[in-house]
Amino acid sequence: MICGENGRGKTTFLTALVWCLYGKQMQEVDTFYKDRVVSAGGYHKYLLASLNKLALSKGQNDFYVTIELKDLDVLGVKCDSIEVKRYFSNIDASDSLEIKMDAIRSELVDDIGQQLFIQDFIMPIEVAKFFFFDAERIVSLAEIQSIQEKRLLNKAYSEVLGIKKYEDLISSLNDLRIRFRKDSANDEEQDKFTQLGKEKSNIAKSVSAIENKIESLTQEKTELKIAADAVQQKLLREGNYLTIGEIKAFQDERERLLVSGRALKNELREYFELAPFAIIGKKLLEINKQIDLEDNNKKVISVKKISEEKIKEIIKNLEDDEETGQINNKFKNYYINKIRQLLTRYLIEDNNTNNLDLKVLHDFTNEQVNTFHAILSNLQNSYWTRLKAINQSIKMNTIDYSLVVSKLAQAETKEKDPLTMNYRAEKENIDKRIQLIDNELMELSANSGSLESKLTSVNESYELLAKKIKIIEKFEPKDHLVIRLIDEIQTFVTKLKSEKKESLEKQILTNLHSLMQKKEFVKKVLIEVDHDILDIHLIDSRGQKIEKDSLSRGEQQLYATAVLKALVDESGIRFPVFVDSPLQKFDDKHSKNIITNFYPNISEQVILMPLLNKELTRAEYQILASHIGATFVIDGLSADASTLKQIEPAEIFA
Known about the structure:
By secondary structure, this protein is α/β, with parallel strands linked by helices. Among the domains are: 186-241 and 413-468; 278-363. Helices cover 62% and strands 11% of the residues. It has 19 helices and 13 strands. It has helices at 10-22, 31-40, 43-50, 53-57, 107-112, 114-122, 147-160, 163-184, 187-238, 244-272, 275-279, 281-320, 329-349, 366-410, 418-468, 476-515, 553-571, 588-598, 618-624; strands at residues 2-3, 62-70, 81-89, 94-101, 104-105, 132-134, 524-530, 533-539, 545-546, 577-580, 606-609, 631-638, 641-647. A four-stranded antiparallel beta sheet has the order 2-3-4-5. Helix 9 (187-238) runs antiparallel to helix 15 (418-468), helix 12 packs antiparallel against helix 13 and helix 12 (281-320) runs antiparallel to helix 14 (366-410). The longest helix is centred in the N-terminal third of the chain and has 52 residues, at 187-238. The radius of gyration is 33 Å and the shape is globular.
């Protein structure tokens, strides 16, 4: 446990660990880190601002963070500890990474690259947010709505459960098959391969150049926005309408309303996809009735065919039976015909409920019938309620946004003052440049999309050319082996996904029941994976889906906590879990559940960073006491410096 008052550095400590492992990529771990980098004006400016002010005043121009990891399993390498050190120099505004095994540089690390080593052997960046998290911000897991967010969750899901490594292996094996065919090609085919290879390389270089340009322009835009905000504040101060604190509060509120407005509109767009079906609701019910009739007819016809086949088989067995040969043919034929009539009457005619006059209009497969029923159920139950709620929220958001913008605009009334006019001209110039950058970014994004499509087309041509080539004899055994391996891995991955999906559903449900007071509130958890999109559904005792935005803030945090614990458990990744601001938004009973069932079990090593007496009371601490291995206090040395002191666990509150 690491404790400290507000502003002493708990969050800074956590940020330092994330920066040490991921450097510039820390922005991909969580939006919290991305926001901090953006608000500083970009990564390099963020690092410059991170240098301790007291150290800077004494002429120090660099800092570093070192993490030592023990008991880390690295395949094929024996070592007691691994040291990760990231160093930043204020002089050239750059950072560098160094990894050592038992205090010695490793060839393995040098061969695969230091950042890739962290990704493959320490912690994939896609899952880092599950091990370094703020207990209050973790509710973002419960707020996932957009397709992009669901794609990112699916990517993290694949990484956590180890699925991505198998999918990458299949891709590598497919590349190997193409290489066999390339090496089997004649001179003309080799020339085509070379030509397509050059084309792929040129497109990839162009895409890379565009990405670099986009990054550069985005950085410039970030810096310009900061400059524009600074000029805006000067304008507002000259207008003598609002205090600096009020200006900042209104600006923050404007940004918040913008972000929430975009999120609501994105959600509305997704609901609009079902709008055409909602509009023709009566027709859907007619279609549903028709589908049910067709489905029933299919089943009756199927049963009839099976019955007819069975009757034929029974009659044939009777006719072929040697013992019936001793019976007079007249009697034999009579009884066989009688049996046939009776079987036909009782097995087919009496059960024949199909509508012979029914015109088949749809002829849906079982999968199509299920999909249709799912859409209809959504429309009949939660669709309109949720659509109205979103629409109302958008209206309120628009009204609130207009009020905030109006108040900010009123503060800019002092137009004729020369100083104000200079500020106005400066802001207009900045805004024009930002608009030009936006236009250029839009154009670059379109060009990048076009190049990506072209690259896909070239790759398809490359693979098509490879398929047409007859493989030479010496590669045939290898090619057959690769095909077998791909089939086996694909079969394994399909089975693994199914098993992991079921296991994760059970884990989340078990965790929810363990953490929540309302044990029967969630009856079932369903994980839906559709290509690269993942969604988690909570089902109540009536079989209806629970909308996550209908949950209270505390319930959302409990849900997110349950998902997080399930992912960590299923991942099998043995890595410490760091929790900043624990027990936010929980009442006494739920806090006790978290302390008893979550924190002591989420990992072999857990680091809690609470604000004592607020985020962790003395009574709650006593429940945890038997699990605590060490306690530290972040102690303030001055206004500019803090230090970590180890304290006896029993003395922490004193």
